[in-house]
Amino acid sequence: MGIITPAIMVANTCNLSDGDRPLLIQVSLIVTALGTLTVVVLQNFGKGVLKLDAILWGMIVGYVMALCLGMVDFSAVAPAGWFQLAAPLRFGVKFEASACISLAVVYVINAVQTIGDLSSTTMGGMDRMPTDRELSGGIVAQGVVSILGALFGGLPAATYSQNVGIVTVNKAINKAVFAFAPMILLAAGLVPKLSAILTTIPQAVIGGAAISVFATITMTGIRMITSEHFSMRSSAVVGLSVALGVGITQVAGSLQGPGFPTWVHTVFGSSPIVVTAIVAILLNLLLPRDQAAKPEA
Predict the structure, then answer these.
(1) Which of 58, 97, 126, 286 is 20 to 30 Å from 211 at the Cα level?
(2) DSSP 8-state symbol, 130
(3) How far apart are CA 36 and CA 257, in angstroms?
């Protein structure tokens, strides 16, 4: 996630459709750079709240700059309502075999991503790996929430790898923090006016604050990989899975065309995480284990 997500963030930052596109891209990149610079400076030279909330301050500085440059659009705020409940089963219930099979495969991979996110978060915030009970509880909770969300027309829940970088940076692991965060999301879901205000944040502002988060995610992943003995087998598992996962998705339409069913691209070609996880699991099962080091005489 730390490798692929920055590219998506840069693409969103530069994906502007107004008339003077070159000028807008330049302005957008300036806002992004200012937000990133604010985060880096506060993380390394700040103290107390300034250092702990460096990402938030980076977004505030970037938002103010974007506001001054006329990049913020409030047109969606006025017509938004003050309160709205989601209607249960609004789209009905229909089971398609192809969709169920595809999503089952994707959800298995999503569970693997959840294990990685939980492991990275625990490593970054508590300097240890999570227990089996903690991993099991996280996966079960994600599954239950996804089922409940689907009944109200919501998308499946995700652990969001961005949280790994945030926890690693500020070391905030108190349960009250993680209980308060979803309350904000719940309020945004019930109050369209609040959600409309949140959508006024330009992608350039989010990218400026988040780029350091993705860098932290990358380094946390490398730290997990190298925390144990890094052998030729480990190099093959990590290197081949990442190379294939990123390589396939970098070539547009590599899993499309004659001979490829539509679901192949949907499942394997839309995200490098799926291919990376499958290849890593298969190599981990097929390659011979490293022999334990023999004790010295």
Answers:
(1) 126
(2) P
(3) 40
Token pair listed for 169: 């940076």
pLDDT tens, residue by residue, 233-254 = 888 888 888 888 778 777 777 7
Tallying the residues shown for the chain, one arrives at 297
- Mean pLDDT, to the nearest integer, of 159-181? 79
Tokens of 71: 């990049």
Calpha distance 9→272 (Å, rounded): 16
Question: Token digits for 61?
Answer: 């500085």
Distance, CA of 157 to CA of 46 (rounded, Å):
34
User: CB under 8 Å to 235, separation ≥6 — which residues?
Assistant: none
DSSP tag of 202: -
DSSP category for residue 87: P
- Amino acid, single-letter form, for residue 53: D
Query: Which of 107-111, 174-178, 227-231, 287-291 shows the lowest mean pLDDT across its residues?
Result: 227-231
Q: In this predicted structure, what is the pLDDT of residue 1?
A: 60
Decide if 167 contacts 121 (C-beta within 8 A).
yes
Confidence (pLDDT) at 293: 45
Rounded distance, CA 176 to CA 173, Å? 9
CA 56 distance to own-chain centroid: 17
Cα 154 from Cα 88, distance rounded (Å): 10
